[in-house]
Write a structure and sequence with these properties.
Distance between the termini: 42 Å
Largest sheet: 7 strands, parallel
CATH architecture of the largest domain: 3-Layer(aba) Sandwich
Number of domains: 2
Order of helices and strands: EHEEHEEEHEHEHEHEHEHHHH
Bound molecules: NADP nicotinamide-adenine-dinucleotide phosphate
Helix content: 25-40%
CATH topology of the largest domain: Rossmann fold
């Protein structure tokens, strides 16, 4: 049984690959850049471009289950080629698929749900712990974080927990046609996160709270598009309840508590020093 992981070089995909290997699966990883994929030796790395589905034919050969991203490129635009990908997957004999949530239903979800594939949605309506990497440079250079609305609470999730859930779903029966909403084990404000970060690296970190206009200026200087800026500012002004509501799903499926932010920081300490 070969399991194909798309998005395998991404924040989540690397953990899906790792957790599948730990569970003894034969893993094939899809990437547009095999030369720079930097994945474990036991992984078979294959070229594939999800916007050009015919390139997936060799990657799907012999595959019975697959982890499928639902977005294209760095800006997370919904992938439009869902119908073609699903048709090729069914033809190749794929039976089961996990779908990584992109914030809303798009062409991939629609095509998978209309197919004969056994699908499972993995929905983290919370931020990934890896978003903290965005702070690394200003912590290293100035020991400061500047951000809008520090009191906003987040049930952030360790990407390895998404990987652990994906591996269970792909390798066990009993998860077909279910949507799993996944969160971390604790709810943290930005000052809470900085206290943990500070303890991990042994250095004080100052938090400077920005106004909405100051946040817009910061994001414009970082080259972020206006629609994304407005989305972020609006989200921080009125965060949806699901972004800070704790759920036991990770533990229920994996049999172990969801990983903490302190654990993520210990694993990623060198990025901040
Ligand atoms: N960050 C958050 O807080 C958060 C929270 C909830 C949900 N999400 C969702 O999570 C997803 C992002 O996951 P992530 O952080 O793991 O992604 P990521 O680190 O940005 O990685 C993107 C991966 O997708 C692959 N990829 C992108 N376009 C492709 C294409 N056209 N063909 C083949 N491969 C393609 C890339 O592979 P190569 O470059 O190697 O080809 C890369 O492995 C988005 O849908 C986002 O909406 C994010």
């Amino acid at each position: 049984m070969t399991i194909l992981v798309t998005g395998a070089t991404g924040n989540v995909g690397r953990h899906v690959v790792d957790q599948l290997i730990r569970s003894g699966a034969r893993v094939r990883a899809l990437t547009r850049n095999p030369a720079t994929a930097n994945l474990p030796k036991s992984v078979e790395i294959v070229y594939g471009e999800l916007t050009d589905p015919q390139t997936l034919v060799p990657a799907l050969d012999g595959v019975t289950a697959m982890h499928l991203i639902t977005f294209n490129g760095a800006d997370s635009a919904p992938l439009q080629t869902g119908a073609e990908i699903v048709a090729l997957a069914e033809k190749a004999g794929v039976r089961k698929v996990t779908l990584l949530w992109n914030g809303e239903r798009g062409p991939v979800e629609e095509a998978v749900e209309a197919s004969h594939l056994e699908w499972t949605h993995l929905q983290p309506p919370v931020e990934f712990m890896s978003n903290a990497k965005e702070w690394a440079e200003s912590i290293r250079s100035e020991g400061v974080i500047r951000h809008l609305n520090g009191q906003v609470l987040s049930a952030m999730i360790h990407e390895a927990d998404i990987g652990s859930v994906a591996a269970k779903v792909l390798m066990e029966d009993g998860h077909a046609f279910k949507s799993y909403t996944l969160t971390g084990p604790e709810v943290l404000s930005i000052p809470d996160k900085l206290r943990l970060l500070s303890a991990e690296i042994g250095r004080d970190i100052q938090f400077v709270e920005l106004s909405a206009e100051e946040e817009r200026t910061k994001m414009r200087q970082a080259g972020i598009q206006e629609d994304v800026i407005e989305y972020v500012v609006g989200w921080y002004a009125n965060p949806p309840e699901e972004s800070y509501l704790l759920l036991p799903t990770v533990e229920q499926i994996t049999g172990r508590p969801a990983r903490t932010f302190a654990q993520w920081l210990a694993e990623n300490r060198e990025k901040f020093i």
